[in-house]
Structures are given as structure tokens and as C-alpha cells.
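Give me the fold.
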Amino acid sequence: MDLQDVYLDWHPIDEGELATELIVDAQERISSFRANSPRISGFETSNFHAAARVLQGVKEQNLAPGIRFCELGCGFGVVTCLASMLGYEAYGIEIEQSLLEGGISLASDYNLGCHFVLGSYRPVNHINQAMNAKKSLASVHPKGGRRLRSTAYKESRLPAPKRRKAASRDGIDHKNEKGAEPTPDFSPFDFDLVYAYPWPAEIKFLEQQFSLRAKPDSLYVAYLGGGKFRLQRK
């Protein structure tokens, strides 16, 4: 199914004071992380101020068919947190654990209900690792605490969150639970609104994946660098 471009004039939209506060804080955390941690190849950040206005515009104009949001390759989870601020049921998926822990901390500090998934959004035949290995889901709740679930992870299909009695110190559960099975109808593209900052070589790939795997009427927002975004509907 071909994707249809969607027009949104996001420039005059106000991102809001709380979003600005979170973005400034997140940028400081990311700068500190980069200064004190080994370099992570491929870790680049979106234009958060512009992303906040785009998400606000999508919300105000009812461009997405629902409130389920997923950020692919979320890094520190800043856009995921911004989506949560706007009332979306916000998920972020990231393959680097150290980055994901930054997102969990950010969401917790701002009392946001976000869900973070440790894993890759690429199908198993597009990555050079065994995707049958366990991956984890960490949910940050507005009233504090985290709900964690470890599961088998196959072909980018992820589990629905489930309560646990205990959590590991880093906020991600690494103990695989026997009998845990992926939920068939839950994948990184099975959302009302999907956001990504693709590398140039990934632009067409992600459009194809969204076209193949997303549900009808859902919206894909791609940040293309600078102040450029592309919105497409399936």
C-alpha cells in the first residue's frame, strides 16, 4: 500500500513551557553522557524543539487515528517523553541499554508514564544478531515505580506490559521468564503514530516497513535533519 504525504505547518505552534524545560534538561544529560561514556556509533539526536511542535500539531489537528505512539531508535527517549506529555500512550524502542536507561531516568524524573523496550525495530533478516534472544520492557509510571517484563523477542514483536514483583537495579529486567511468548498483534509498527530519525540509507527501508506492517490510517513521522520532517499516512 502506498503512503500518502500529510501536510502540517508546525512552525507557528508553541511547544509549551514544560516541554521546553524537559528538552533543555535532556540535552544537558545527553551532553554529560557523551562526555563520560564510550562513543555509541549511530547515536544522533532529533531536533527536539521542532519534534515537540510537530507532535503538538498532530495532536491539535487529530492527524493520528489514536493515541498509541512509538519512537523507533529512541535513544534517551526524549521524543517518547514529549509524546507522553501530550497524552499519548508512548513507547520507545532502543537497542543500546545505556541509552535506554537514560530514557527511563528522564521519564521517571518528569513523572511520565512511558514504556521503553530494549531491542531493535528491524526484522530478524535485517540485523546481524540473534533476535530470538530475550529482550526487556520497562514501563515508567507517573506515580513512581517500574513495571517490568522480560520475554522472547522475535521479528520485532514485543510483549504487552505485565506486573512484576521485583525489578533489577538498572531498571531493566534481564531474567528471561520461562513460557513468556511474544504477543502476535504487538510490533514497533503497530501504532497510531510512529516516529523515527532514520539514517539516509534507512529512509526508504522504514517507509517500506511502515507500509507493510503498520495498520491502515496510521501516521509515520520521519525527522530528516535540520528542520525537515515528512509525515505520511498509510
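The chain has five helices and nine strands.
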